[in-house]
Specification:
Helix content: 25-40%
Strand content: 25-35%
Length: about 325
């Protein structure tokens, strides 16, 4: 009997539209598989399923079901493509765990941890994972510009602590840019992390569960035409993404080894993508994404294709992992 797969997309954050694109890409890739696939939209004001004619059918939050063609449909598994909250911060994972419905991303605690940049870095630090010097702020904290710059220097990056797709990020090159950048970050989150700018090459590397084991995908080098890999660079063609990256074997091995080690330390699963900046042959960990973009043009699918894994195989495997069939 065919399994019912809910492809969850949308969310509560600025990444809503990007998540819809990822979810639709997964839906298209899974069309000719042995699954019944359903597009399910999770929004702040409503949860609903889109039928084949794009009619909205309410989802029952008490058991995550929907009545389709007069039949109550339950789901065997959820393919989680929700970027940001609640799909990446552990909230939806906790909901599905309570429902007893498996989902393709990491479980609730690792998801919440990795979504919180400063907590994730703090957990990894005792394991010897290199990262940029940082300064932490909560909304309402006094702003001591001298103390911040003494810690991280200039240039530096001001980031919303819990946000994706480079929302709430500013590269600060002058002292008088710092406070406006912090205020900008607070528009996305009430926690801010300010990081030393590392001068090096930027790389992204996927680690996934595949064929019953964690697998490191080919590395992508990101060459932004802007100051950094911001929203404009990511989604408006202002960056060159080179997959596989042209790298010395030693550095390539170093990045892949560190990405796999982080995946294991944090007890992640499913489809993940870690970001590094390499300076003086040292890979500095920036962050890890547990619900990465999954459109045809997204970085993780690029890496899968470079590893000779089709998108259908990639997404089918993620479902099988969640179901415990591999």
């Amino acid at each position: 009997m065919k399994k019912n797969v809910a492809i969850a997309m949308g969310g509560f954050s600025s990444e809503f539209d990007i998540s819809i694109k990822s979810g639709n890409a997964v839906y298209q890739a899974l069309k000719n598989t042995d699954y019944n696939t359903y597009r399910t939209i999770i929004a702040r004001d409503s949860w609903y399923l889109l039928d084949k004619k794009d009619n909205k059918i309410p989802l029952d939050k008490s058991d995550f079901s929907a009545i389709v063609d007069n039949v109550k449909v339950y789901f065997d598994v959820v393919f989680n493509t929700i970027h940001g909250s609640p799909g990446e911060d552990g909230l939806i994972q906790g909901y599905f765990e309570n429902m007893g419905i498996p989902q393709t991303a990491s479980s609730h605690y690792p998801s919440a941890l990795t979504y919180n940049k400063r907590d994730c870095i703090s957990v990894l630090k005792p394991y010897g994972v290199d990262s940029a010097k940082n300064y932490l702020l909560d909304e309402g904290d006094p702003l001591d510009v001298n103390a911040i710059l003494e810690k991280v220097g200039l240039p530096c990056f001001v980031k919303a602590n819990r946000a994706g797709s480079s929302f709430g990020i500013t590269k600060v090159k002058k002292e008088d840019e710092l406070i406006p950048a912090i205020e900008h970050a607070y528009n996305e989150d009430d926690e801010v992390i300010i990081e030393q700018a590392i001068n090096g090459r930027e790389f992204s590397v996927g680690v996934i569960n595949y064929d019953g084991r964690p697998m490191v995908l080919p590395i992508t080098e990101i060459r932004s035409k802007n100051e950094f890999f911001d929203f404009d660079a990511k989604y408006h063609g202002k960056a060159e993404e080179i997959t596989p990256a042209d790298l010395d074997v030693k550095i390539q091995n170093s990045i892949q080894k560190e990405a796999l080690r982080i995946f294991k330390i944090l007890k992640l699963k499913g489809l993940t993508r870690a970001e590094f900046i390499v300076e003086n042959e040292i890979p500095y960990f920036i962050e890890i994404n547990t619900c990465p973009g999954l459109t045809d043009a997204s970085i993780l699918p690029q890496q899968a294709r470079a590893a000779n894994i089709s998108l259908q195989d990639l997404y089918t495997n993620a479902i099988e992992v969640a179901l415990g069939e591999t």
